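Hey, quick one: can you model this chain's 3D structure?
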Amino acid sequence: MVSESQSIPAAPWWRNDAVIFAALVAIAIVAFATTYGITRSYQRRQDALSRRWFQRGQDDLASGKAKSAVGDFRTALLFAPDNPQYRLRLAQALSADNEIPQAIAYFLNLWEQQPGSGPINLELARLYARDRQPQQASHYFNNAIYGIWTDDPVSHRRQARTEYIRFLLDQQQTTQAQAEAISLAGAVPPGDTEGELQAAGLLLATGDADHAFTAYDSVLKYAPAQAALGAAKAAFQLGYFRTAAERLRTAIEHGVNDPAAKSMLSRAEAVLALDPSQRHLTNADRAKRVTTVYVQSGSRLQQCAAQKQIELQAVPPTSDLQLLYSDWTRNGPQLSQLARDPDIRDFMMDLAFRIEATTAAECGPPTSDNDWAIQMLSRYGEGVER
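Sure thing. Here's the predicted structure for all 386 residues.
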């Protein structure tokens, strides 16, 4: 037995509970730090690789190498699968590579997370338009127009509506395109001349010449060349040839050097030069113009008959051209009475109009300015003076 006077030997320090606990804590800290360091190093490596492949994809896409860009962005997503920017760029690369079904699938996935996003809706609208799904395209175009744009929303919404109008025109949905063009024009901020000109051009493209003319004329003093030319085209479509001629002269004075504009001016002036209903004319002047119209229509009749190898002087006349020629020759002597009898003037003009309409149907549209002018006088009457 150990006597009470003898003491029990002390345990070694390294077997002390506090020391053991501290050692375990230290080991855990070192292990955690090592694991954390390895993990962070791996993440940094992953991030560096994802950024590198993403930048390569950006460069390829900018260079027009869409297929290569698709591979680059897919690789970037292997290292950063949850990065929304990478997924967006992959969807855009697929679109650029004409992989429409895949691009739609990617954009729909993005859309589910941001259904109100203007850019995503616009991309989907474009893809469905290319995929010939007009109802889906219209749906997403509308979403884009009224969607959320983080920067310059007014400009982006206008661009989306502009694309939608052109899409509707491609689909021959003219009425809806006109409605959208009117909405576009109404949303242009005051003082935005470029926006006014763009809206006016789209109104004209949809066939709404009335609103287009008003829109162009409203910015005439700020953009005289472009606005005058646009207003002239609108007036021309409306049959307001005096106004068209005035605006065309203004456009040319301000530097427009367009052969089409000069041709339009020539035709508008031809209409005005032949119109016998202008208020300032004397009876003698009216008679001269009616005579010119009458003689011109007879010349057109003979040219058409020659083209179709029809003998105009056949007896009895049977074809439409022969019957019109018979009327034309029989009534020719009345030209001498034009200055005295307004009723004869109306009859002679009506016969000339019928000749021009029939020859256009038989031999195609007129090629000379004067024949074309007679057709316009028949169509618009006194409206050409507006």
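One thing worth noting: The longest helix spans residues 17-62.
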